[in-house]
Amino acid sequence: MRKRIVAGNWKMNLDHREGARLAGEILGGLKNRVPQCEVVVMPPFTSLHAVGEALRGSSVSLGAQDLWHEESGAFTGEVSAGMISAAGCRYVLVGHSERRHILGEGRDLLSKKLRAALKGGLSPIYCVGELIEEREAGRAEETVSRQVEEVLGGLDAVGMSKVAIAYEPVWAIGTGKTATTGDASGMHGVIRDLLSKLFGRGTAGETPILYGGSVKPDNARALLSADDIDGALVGGASLASDSFLGIVFPT
Ligand code: PEP
């Protein structure tokens, strides 16, 4: 059965003390309850150690929000896959829309980052999604398919078995607007069909495809029970234990 994941992307929020406190609250909310998904938190680099300590021995996984593709050297301000892995992370985001559109990251850099993550033993969550202009021009599927193919194309089955994809329409991130369940599920189907063509049905069927974009406790159940939606990448609502747990345990 395909893995399900609910991951909280804390972005540039919460220092290490606040992060450790939130991790403790999340663990408190998971006590005596078994989620139907793997729960992941992705704090800023400076909080990885403290949050990792708070989560030690628990079922909650740690992830980072970005990496640099070289292993070491003169890359001021950057952090390698090996460092992230040594800090206790299992996951790393690659291609989040804020890195694509604020920091200008594109195909070549993202391909290198994704491959470096795999080489460093991390599971990348590769983010894709169209801008509002692309959706309005009827080019959402074309954009997302291109983003999938240009970075994941050429990976072997072993590499792909470690990858999850997050479909995050850019216009839905942090805006309170959410894709309809039908639109999100439809795009996930497009992605899965493309994975099937690129890697075969077996690999496509095993790849988790998460939805992201203003997921909240009140829309989580509908989204997470839709066909082909295998979990959520959550920004704003992951910054408080109540709302994050309301997505982990949707009602
Ligand atoms: C995100 O940053 O990946 C995200 C989905 O943010 P939000 O949930 O706040 O829209």
Give me the secondary-structure topology.
Elements lengths: L4 E5 L6 H15 L7 E5 L5 H8 L5 E4 L16 H6 L4 E4 L2 H5 L5 H13 L3 E6 L3 H5 L3 H13 L4 H4 L3 E4 L13 H19 L1 H6 L2 E4 L4 H8 L6 E4 L6 H8 L3
Parallel strand pairs: 1-2, 1-8, 2-3, 3-4, 4-5, 5-6, 6-7, 7-8
Helix pairs in contact: 1-2, 1-12, 5-7, 7-9, 11-12
The chain binds phosphoenolpyruvate.
The site of phosphoenolpyruvate has 13 residues, from strand 8.
Give me the Rg, rounded: 17 Å
* N/C terminus separation: 23 Å
**Helix/strand class:** alpha/beta
Helix content: 40-55%
In terms of DSSP E residues, the strand content is: 5-15%
Q: How many domains is the backbone divided into?
A: 1
Question: Within the largest sheet, what's the order of strands?
Answer: 1-2-3-4-5-6-7-8
Structural shape: globular
CATH architecture annotation name:
Alpha-Beta Barrel
Small-molecule binders here are: phosphoenolpyruvate
Q: Total strand count, please?
A: 8
Please tell me the overall pLDDT. 97
In CATH terms, the superfamily is Aldolase class I
Total helical segments? 12
Description:
This protein has 251 residues and is α/β, with parallel strands linked by helices. It has a single domain (34-240), classed as Alpha-Beta Barrel (TIM Barrel). It contains twelve helices and eight strands. It has helices spanning 16-30, 48-55, 81-86, 97-101, 107-119, 132-136, 140-152, 157-160, 181-199, 201-206, 217-224, 241-248, and strands spanning 5-9, 38-42, 61-64, 91-94, 123-128, 164-167, 209-212, 231-234. Strands 1-2-3-4-5-6-7-8 form an eight-stranded parallel beta barrel, surrounded by six helices. Strand 1, helix 1 and strand 2 (38-42) form a beta-alpha-beta unit. Helix 1 (16-30) crosses helix 12 (241-248), helix 5 (107-119) packs across helix 7 (140-152) and helix 11 (217-224) packs parallel to helix 12. It is globular and about 45 Å long. The chain binds phosphoenolpyruvate. Residues 9, 168, 173-174, 212-215, 233-237 line the site of phosphoenolpyruvate.
